[in-house]
Amino acid sequence: MGGKKRIAHRFGGVWTEIKLRALTDYLGFYQNALKNQGFETWYIDAFAGTGDRHAELKRGGIFENSPIEQVEHILDGSARKALKIDPPFTHYWFSEQHRGRAKQLEELKDQWPYDIQVKPGEANAELQTLFSSKPWSGGNKSGRQRGVVFLDPYGMSVDWKTLEMLAATRRVDVWYLFPRAAVIHQLANDLAGVDEGKRRALARIFGSEDWEEQFYSAQPAGRLHLPGGFDGAGVVNA
Q: Vertex 175, ends 170 and 178: CA angle to 5°?
């Protein structure tokens, strides 16, 4: 569809297209499975960006008989890919805390003839508001809603309590791309090297303080003893 000039949003790499392709395939399967079931379907993207992603791709080379050059492309992000699903979702809900990106998302309303809601706020708070309000929380249409929630956060932005809330609905499928690199960045070789701010952030994403014991519990020296009387060398222990 046509529209205004699309502003670039730089993020990701080759793996980004792979994960977005997987998401797009899933959304298509989801909509086709539910299209005759009488449900009101929602696509919920809590870190929607601008709807686009900007990438630099190589072009040329010996096989193309031309100089190698970096070419800038603007590709569809998760929001635009979701809007192209056929059959479409009943509702599209996008959250983006960055005001400029949220404004770009608003322009999707002029390009697509669907019910599109854009929330320019913090993702956890906006999700809590959505699912504590009608039609999700009550009303004569409550119970008919089904949805896919896509969480591809900026670092450690998803609270554990948000995941608990989504699970409690029993009506949404959740795609959560866990920020492993961001979590590892908060850790240290010894727990004493993790300051209080980082400890609070890790507790928020894991949902408890248990992570400290799991990550930093002392490990016995020597062979690894496995259940069933076998040790790490495949020898039965007495």
A: 120
- Enter the pTM of the model: 0.80
Ranges assigned E (strand) in the chain? 40-45, 52-61, 66-76, 91-95, 115-119, 145-151, 172-176, 225-226, 230-231
Give dist(CA 14, CA 3) in Å, integer.
Answer: 27
φ, ψ for residue 91, nearest 5 deg: -135, 145
**Which residue carries 């449900």 as its tokens?**
39
Q: Read off the pLDDT of residues 158-211 as tens digits, 9 standing for 90 and up.
A: 999 999 999 999 999 999 999 999 999 999 988 889 999 999 999 999 999 898
Is the separation of the CB atoms in 39 and 30 below 8 Å? no
Residue 13 neighbours by CB under 8 Å, 6+ apart: 55
Q: Which residues pair with 115 in a beta bridge?
A: 91
In the chain, residues under CATH classification 3.40.50 are 15-50+78-178
CA dist list (Å): 189 to 156, 194, 195, 219? 20, 9, 12, 14
How far the first Cα of the chain sits from its last, in Å, is 71
The dihedral built from the CA positions of residue 129, 130, 134 and 138, taken in this order, carries a sign that is negative
CATH class (in words) of the domain with range 15-50+78-178: alpha beta
